[in-house]
Design a protein that fits this description.
There is one protein chain. This protein is an alpha+beta fold. 22% of the residues lie in helices and 38% in strands. The strands form two sheets. Strands 3, 4, 5, 6, 7, 8, 9, 10 and 11 form a nine-stranded antiparallel beta sheet that branches. A two-stranded antiparallel sheet has the order 1-2. Helix 2 runs antiparallel to helix 3.
Length: 279
């Protein structure tokens, strides 16, 4: 989803996060590049509470039912003997998703509605190490406004009437293999439902902001958790819906005022983004 998908708007600064992960094949729980009885054994060992060597839990739920149990071990064995086909790999699912995004540029007409909701909870605000309920109340009122945004675009063969291109507008929605912890694909008669999960990530926001980082921020960190993207495609392989959500805990220490007084803020930010495509 690249940096700008997980956009967390706090203190007037757009926060971005980069998720790093690795590609893995569903069912290959020992990461040896093959799906065989060793993987089935590892799943069974995990099910009974033992600690199998090199066990990759992220790819163990091969049935995609939200649980790791004997059903997953059975499916792995069925794949190993060739009685059923293996599920799509992370790379295949990512390619399917990215291709569905890129098809927007090929359409004669496509309408896109982008909704963004940022819910900010102020956990704590300290002035020189002391609680400041007045400032906390003021900040809660500030972040309680303008947390919902909606943008609309109509592309004609990949461009709006203003000259904006689908590639530019939708670049943030593309996924790279290195970003994904796990991916699943469910095929329906009229398309696919694709689910991607990202690793939790601790981020130094000063490094992300680079030269634009506020000079008075001594501490500027965010821990992003529970990041998930669910996408739906139609029978023609075109994207129709994208839903993304993530939670971040932000901690900021800033020097304010000429006297060198400090301000500490602890915030929880939950962001939800929705893209709706109509052809």
């Amino acid at each position: 989803m690249k940096k700008v998908l997980c956009t967390l708007l706090v203190l007037g600064i757009i926060l971005t996060s980069t998720f790093t992960a690795f590609a893995a094949t569903a069912g290959d729980v020992n990461s040896d590049g093959k799906i065989n009885s060793s993987d089935a054994l590892g799943i069974l060992q995990h099910t009974v509470g033992s600690n199998p060597k090199n066990f990759n839990k992220a790819v163990a739920d091969i049935t995609a039912d939200g649980k790791i149990n004997s059903s997953d071990a059975l499916m792995v064995l069925q794949i190993a003997v060739g009685s059923i086909k293996p599920p799509m790999s992370n790379n295949d699912i990512i390619k399917l998703y990215n291709d569905s995004i890129n098809k927007v540029s090929d359409q004669t007409k496509c309408k896109v509605v982008i909704s963004n909701n940022v819910d900010v909870t102020v956990n704590e605000i300290l002035s020189d190490g002391k609680e400041n309920p007045v400032l906390k109340d003021m900040f809660e009122q500030l972040v309680g406004t303008a947390t919902n945004e909606e943008e609309k675009f109509t592309f004609y063969k990949g461009k709006t009437l203003k000259g904006e291109t689908a590639e530019e507008i939708l670049a943030a929605t593309l996924i790279e293999t290195s970003e994904i912890e796990s991916a699943t694909a469910v095929k329906y008669a009229d398309g696919y439902k694709l689910t991607f999960r990202f690793f939790d990530e601790d981020i130094d926001m000063n490094e992300v902001a680079g030269p634009d980082a506020p000079a008075d921020f001594e501490e500027y960190t965010a821990t992003v958790t529970d990041a998930e993207l669910v996408a739906v495609t139609d029978s023609k392989g075109r994207i129709t819906d994208i839903n993304f959500c993530a939670t971040a805990n932000m901690k900021t220490t800033a020097v304010v005022g000429e006297d060198g007084s400090s301000l500490y803020m602890d915030l929880s930010v939950k962001e939800t983004q929705n893209y709706k495509f109509t052809y």
